[in-house]
Amino acid sequence: MNSLAPDQCYSQGSKTLEYSTIVTQQRAWRAVCLCWVLSTVTGLVPIFGWHNREKIGVDERNATPGSIVCQFTTVMRMDYMVYFNFFGWVVLPLTIMMGLYAEIFYVIRKQLNKRAEASSDSSSKYYDKELKLAKSLSLVLFLFTVCWLPLHVMNCVHYFCPTCHVPKTAMYIGIFMSHANSAVNPLVYAFRINRFRRTLLQIWRRLLCKSNDPSLCNISPPAVAEKKLNQ
């Protein structure tokens, strides 16, 4: 079995130590809380006055019986949806994340090529794992773009070209796709990450298990099961 050279072991170990030093649990919690605060403030901006409240009920009076009326597209101002929501909170972060992922893939590919030349199996496995994780996260980013971009594009068309007609059916489909993105992410994690898939299957089995078949309900958590196997 091939072994890592001392400098390779030190490089890989130093990177792990550096990551553990920078990404502490406290800083991770702070980052999560900051994301929630920013998301809450962004969502509450229309309530603070950036809306079209005077137009509530106009579409309902003009709608035909039995038709579905979306009050959101009437009340929300398009300048908020385009400039603040799309350009500020979608285009800018998405561009930054795409640049970061491009840099991550470049670094991992570069390291894999170096390890292939050095015939270092242990190091290659480490970077293969990192590459698989990066692909999973980039897939999440891609699906986010696919699900949200149509709605924002239609908002831009509606705002910058008032005379252009955007079918309501297309708008409703875009709204549905944006909401469906939240349901797609767990499936991506389950498809790409084995531990997440096992946990998801465990949850579904507990939800679908029948009283006459208790064996389906008696399932050990993945962490416990792995610990028992190791013992």
Automatic annotation (TrEMBL):
It holds the Pfam family 7tm_1. It comes from the Eukaryota. GO terms for molecular function: G protein-coupled adenosine receptor activity. Residues 1-189 form the G-protein coupled receptors family 1 profile domain. It is found in: Cell membrane. The keyword Transferase does not apply. The chain crosses the membrane at residues 28-50, 86-108, 133-151, 171-191. Its main location: membrane. InterPro entries: Adenosn_rcpt (IPR001634), GPCR_Rhodpsn (IPR000276), GPCR_Rhodpsn_7TM (IPR017452). Keywords: Cell membrane, Disulfide bond, G-protein coupled receptor, Glycoprotein, Membrane, Receptor, Transducer, Transmembrane, Transmembrane helix. Belongs to the G-protein coupled receptor 1 family. This is Adenosine receptor A1-like. The gene is ADORA1.
